[in-house]
Amino acid sequence: MTSTWLAGFRSAIISPYEQFQLTEPREFTDQTVRQVLHMAGGGRRLRVRLSNRYGRDTLEIGAARIALRKNGFATIAETDTVLRFDGVDTVRIPAGGEMVSDTVDLAVNGGDDLLLSLYLPGATGLATFSHQPMEIAAVVAGDHTADPDLSEVEEVASRFYVTGVDVLADADAPVVVAFGDSWFDGAGTTLGANRRSVDALNSMLTRGWVVNQGIGGNQLLTDEVGERALARFDRDVLDVPGVTHVVVNLGINDIGLGEVAAADDLIAGYTELAARAHAAGLPIYANTIGPFAGVIYPEVNVGPALPVRVVVNEWLLTTTVFDAVFDVAAAVADPERPDFIHPDLDSGDGLHLNDEGARIMAETMRIPGLR
Question: Where in this chain does the entry annotate a coiled-coil region (predicted)?
Answer without folding.
Answer: none
